[in-house]
């Protein structure tokens, strides 16, 4: 059995599942408590939390295994953002619970956002679970797992956990690419989102802590780091004198990795200085993931999303003026309560204008505890799906044109290994293709020419053809 990692962008966007559980590694403690597996559900931020737990478990005397069937201890890191994600989490718990009934598993711990949101209900409904851990108490995992639960620091029930460069963390995915969370929590008021209630107020790590972590990742062979936060552009506001621009300058100068990419940039906070750094700093990818959610003014008001100079059209045009080379990715929600035919026409028109290199479109999901769930004018599911397809189709037309413009150009590519569908080809990504959410580059050289090219190599590819959302090319040279 493998855990699923469904990346959720800005907590509204879902992309194809990736099977990842944990990297295998031996414990570093004097004592040996057994073998542990961590199953991650939900977004990339959850993946980071799982990696922190893996590090803590390893330091507390567990060997990490990648198959839950081989484990003595299973930790399921749940997602509680969407109702469907909570259902998926429960299904996973029930499935792993069977292993416990069969006597193959000694202990089952459930952590993450679903626990934060539905702890009491889950405790009542799932007696097979030994312990529940909230997102604030990740560092307890060692104590909980080793039956040494001690006095825990809790600040009046408020979320407070924030990992740093000293926190043990073991990467669970590929060894050339990693996510780094630079802040936790969110102070924004989006009416469709439960995250501020679950994750608490925004709190940023120090610049030094992030630089140190990225340095350590570089020493381990990581070439690409994707920076994460619920609201990336607010980074540093809770720390006197620190900002995202300052962090990027330091990472560019001292981070040690080849590529640093920004995911989930809330429109407010994007300014000239930030755009200029993204455009000119050597190691910062010319890429910005800017979730806009919609373009209709009335819907944006109902969503409590930015308007005025940070409204979708205004901020998009501003970015184009200051930094035309930045590859913009965005996400939209369709089927928000009260969305009319005119609203969806307006969104389709906006997409067809071709501002974005990639777009994710997600159907609205009424989440318990959010203001939007109680709004009138909820849209039937089938209608939401049709609207989604319509906006996706609009972006497909834009993509065909944008990708065709790249034919004949040379592009820097991070090679990810053999292509998932055939070992005769290599697969890679460019600086403007984030993992899991954007297209890829297929390298179709002869097998003998690519057999010595390993995953994590950075090379230059000449683009020769197109394949849907992907580009096809031939490898000209590599960095090794
Ligand atoms: S409330 Fe915060 S976390 Fe939720 S969608 Fe808005 S910006 Fe993102």
Describe this structure in words.
Among the domains are: 1-155, Rossmann fold (3-Layer(aba) Sandwich); 410-478, OB fold (Dihydrolipoamide Acetyltransferase, E2P). The chain is 31% helix and 23% strand. It contains 13 helices and 22 strands. A six-stranded parallel beta sheet has the order 10-13-14-15-16-17. Strand 14 (259-262), helix 8 (272-280) and strand 15 form a beta-alpha-beta unit. The two termini are 37 Å apart. 50% of the residues are buried. Mean pLDDT is 86; it is low at 1-22 and 148-157. Iron/sulfur cluster binds at residues 10-11, 186, 188, 190, 193, 195-196, 230-231, 266.
- Summarize the biggest pleated sheet: 6 strands, parallel
Secondary structural class: alpha/beta
User: Biggest sheet: strands side by side, in what order?
Assistant: 10-13-14-15-16-17
Overall pLDDT score: 86
| Small ligands present | iron/sulfur cluster
CATH topology of the domain at 1-155: Rossmann fold
Structure annotation, total helices: 13
The quaternary state of the protein chains shown equals single chain
CATH secondary-structure class of the domain at 1-155: Alpha Beta
Q: Which ranges are low-confidence, i.e. pLDDT below 50, for 5 or more consecutive residues?
A: 1-22, 148-157
